[in-house]
């Protein structure tokens, strides 16, 4: 960890707790800052806040008093999920107080270079693939961000021979200034989080912040098949490395005659890749690009591609019962992810879907529902999904209270050789704290089936 004096004796507000706020508050306290933590959850119910009080940190809980923000503030470190419409943040903006996320703090103290991965879909899979390739290739990776430990906790332990492989959301990337990954990855852009960003363009700009501090000494790995991603990366000063599943790229990653190539060098035939789903080929090309740029040998890359079958909650095979295959794709929190999951199967599908209503319609699912024989839906978006299923000509539609109740209903609607797929196309927050909780409940309900 670098020794920095940026925050010594400076007044810093940590807005919102959860894992990232807790880690940031402790780190800032250790760096000598005068830390104030503000969280909506009352102190008597807030175990995390109580732990900070025991460390001697000033904690204000139960409301967001505007008086916390004034000219004496050096910076605000905010929880990524708190929108910029929050009155404290709006006041801070008028006072030109920097509003950061803990990723920026992690970068400032880290001895190790970062590899940053963003995109609407495939971030977790790609981040995990890169981590595994670097680990097998003996490049000393650490994993951080949405997929693992909070970045500023990892950065405190990282040495200069490590790489911090970090999954980054648009929310996190809106709160950076100097953050400069040695290699950035922009996988794709799809209409998502409109309740937070307002428009797809603003969402894309937030993602593209991953490039903004990079120079030609760093690399930007980007999807040539996604026109909007390509347009955003063109404005980057980084050295650009493209990947494509559709085009031949002499200086990037692509597929030629079913062989995955990087800069013209054949690495592996795609039939030997263990990870299922055509949609994962882009994620694999991105991961190979990063690994080759760092100097991972082909043998290590091939080993990972032949053995890596996916991550939990992302098209995760749960098991087979009475000739029905069960898959947990709870991490499919938007339409594109569910479209990809539906495209991965040729068998008849009983689809479990629904969740938080973010204002999307679901018409973009229609071309992918040909194999869906039945829909079991739940959550705020149930009526919208019922309408789409009817448009798709699906005759069997059931509306239930939650995922746990959906599993036995889906089983009763299925036949041998069917796929029973949880792929919600929605965030979980209307009913479940996280998509992981939702996926675990699905998995447990599958195991309870008789």
TrEMBL record:
Segments spanning the bilayer are none
Keyword ATP-binding applies = yes
Q: Where is the signal peptide?
A: 1-25
Q: Where in the cell is it found?
A: Cytoplasm
**Per its UniProt record, what Gene3D superfamilies does this chain match?**
Mur ligase, C-terminal domain, Mur-like, catalytic domain, NAD(P)-binding Rossmann-like Domain
Named in its record, the pathway it takes part in is: Cell wall biogenesis; peptidoglycan biosynthesis
Annotated InterPro entries: Mur-like_cat_sf, Mur_ligase_C, Mur_ligase_C_dom_sf, Mur_ligase_cen, MurD
Q: Which residues form a coiled coil?
A: none
EC main group? ligase
* Family designation: Belongs to the MurCDEF family.
Q: What is this protein called?
A: UDP-N-acetylmuramoylalanine--D-glutamate ligase
Q: Which gene encodes it?
A: murD
């Amino acid at each position: 960890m670098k020794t920095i004096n940026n925050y010594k004796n400076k007044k810093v507000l940590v807005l919102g707790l959860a894992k990232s706020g807790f880690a940031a508050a402790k780190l800032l306290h250790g760096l000598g800052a005068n830390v104030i933590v503000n969280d909506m959850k009352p102190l008597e119910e807030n175990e995390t806040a109580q732990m900070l009080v025991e460390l001697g940190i000033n904690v204000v809980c139960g409301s967001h008093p505007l008086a916390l923000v004034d000219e004496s503030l050096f910076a605000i470190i905010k929880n990524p999920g708190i929108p910029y419409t929050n009155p404290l943040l709006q006041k801070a903006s008028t006072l030109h107080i920097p509003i950061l996320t803990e990723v920026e703090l992690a970068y400032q103290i880290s001895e190790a270079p970062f590899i940053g991965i963003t995109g609407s879909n495939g971030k977790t899979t790609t981040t995990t693939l890169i981590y595994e390739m670097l680990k097998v290739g003996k490049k000393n990776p650490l994993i951080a961000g949405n997929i693992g430990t909070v970045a500023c906790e990892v950065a405190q332990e990282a040495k200069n021979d490590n790489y911090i492989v970090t999954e980054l959301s648009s929310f996190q990337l809106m709160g950076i200034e100097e953050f400069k990954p040695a290699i950035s990855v922009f996988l794709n852009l799809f209409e998502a989080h409109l309740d937070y960003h307002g428009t797809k363009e603003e969402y894309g700009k937030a993602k593209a912040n991953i490039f903004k501090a990079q120079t030609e000494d760093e690399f930007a790995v980007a999807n040539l098949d996604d026109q909007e991603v390509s347009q955003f990366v063109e404005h980057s000063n980084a050295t650009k490395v493209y990947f494509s599943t559709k085009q031949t790229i002499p200086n990037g990653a692509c597929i030629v005659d079913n062989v995955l190539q990087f800069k013209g060098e054949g690495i592996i035939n795609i039939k030997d890749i263990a990870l299922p789903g055509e949609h994962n080929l882009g994620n694999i090309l991105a991961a190979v690009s990063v690994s080759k740029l760092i100097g991972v040998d082909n043998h290590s890359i091939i080993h990972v591609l032949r053995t890596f079958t996916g991550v939990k909650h992302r098209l995760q095979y749960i098991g087979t019962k009475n000739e029905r295959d069960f898959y947990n794709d709870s991490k499919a929190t938007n339409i594109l992810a569910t479209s990809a999951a539906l495209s991965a199967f040729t068998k008849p599908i009983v689809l479990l879907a629904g969740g938080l209503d973010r204002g999307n319609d679901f018409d973009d699912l229609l071309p992918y529902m040909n194999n869906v024989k039945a829909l079991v839906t739940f959550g705020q978006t149930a009526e919208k999904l019922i309408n789409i299923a009817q448009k798709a000509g699906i005759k069997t539609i059931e509306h239930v209270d939650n995922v746990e109740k959906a599993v036995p209903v889906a089983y009763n609607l299925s036949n041998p050789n069917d796929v029973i797929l949880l792929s919600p196309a929605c965030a979980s927050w209307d009913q479940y704290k996280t998509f992981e909780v939702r996926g675990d409940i699905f998995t447990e309900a599958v195991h309870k089936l008789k």
